[in-house]
Amino acid sequence: MQKNNKHINEHVYFINQLYRDFLLPTILGDDDATILYWAGKRISRHYDLSSFDDIVSFFNTAEFGTLTKVKERRTSITFELSGQTVTDRINSDSREFSIEGGMIAEAVQKGIGKATESEITILDKEKKVQIVARFD
């Protein structure tokens, strides 16, 4: 069973890599980060993601990686995204995490009721992505 799950995970990663790291940037060109961010917000609305547990579950299902909440402040929440998929993407030529940033911004906005935008920082040494959701 373990070997079969590994094959499935590799297949899902390949599909994600194919569309996220090759097709979409080719189609969207220089505007890919902005468009993917807004697409992430739309995905979050479509799947009614409004809590941390919702977004964690979605990220696990979509093989986006493991999302953890690192810090919560009066005007921001800091998340980290990690795992093999994240490591592989950081090590690849495409290091785009705008979909995840948009999804988190929208879910936080819906959950707290305040306009929210997110900032994405790739932590190369740790092989993680930090996403800070900022709100008023």
CATH architectural label: 2-Layer Sandwich
Count of alpha and pi helical runs: 5
Biggest β-sheet: strands ordered side by side in the sheet: 1-2-4-3
Q: Describe the largest sheet.
A: 4 strands, antiparallel
- Low-confidence spans: pLDDT under 50, at least 5 residues? none
Secondary-structure element sequence?
HHHEEHHEE
CATH superfamily: Trafficking protein particle complex subunit 3
Q: What is the alpha-carbon Rg in Å?
A: 15 Å
The total strand number stands at 4
> For the terminal residues, how far apart are their CA atoms?
48 Å
CATH class: Alpha Beta
CATH fold-level label: Muramoyl-pentapeptide Carboxypeptidase, domain 2
User: Which range best describes the helical content: under 10%, 10-25%, 25-40%, 40-55%, 55-70% or over 70%?
Assistant: 55-70%
Strand content: 15-25%
Give the overall form: globular
Q: Structurally, how many domains make up the residues?
A: 1
Q: What structural category characterises the helix and strand content?
A: alpha+beta
Q: What do the pLDDT scores average to?
A: 89
